[in-house]
Design a protein that fits this description.
By secondary structure, the chain is mainly alpha-helical. It has three helices and two strands; from the N terminus they run E-E-H-H-H. A two-stranded antiparallel sheet has the order 1-2. Strand 1 and strand 2 form a beta hairpin. The longest helix is centred in the middle third of the chain and has 17 residues. It is elongated, with a radius of gyration of 14 Å.
Amino acid sequence: MNFCNCMRCSRIFNHVSGPTLCRECDKYIFDIIKEYLENNPSSTAIKMSEETKIPIKIIRQYIKDQRLMEIRKELNTCILCGEIIDQ
């Protein structure tokens, strides 16, 4: 088992992959991102990071894990750069 401290609350938890966030903090941060994207659908990851104060590293990991795909499935813009994606 790989135990580590949550980067947000310092709680010890079993880390499997992704950002070093415990389950509660991961849900909290993901909910912030989800709400932000619902209100700002054409925002880029960098702008989202600046406005929510969530580290870009966490946002990029969510993108890599495809966790943000469901939120943005109806949009055809890249979450990293904001460019229109041809489909």
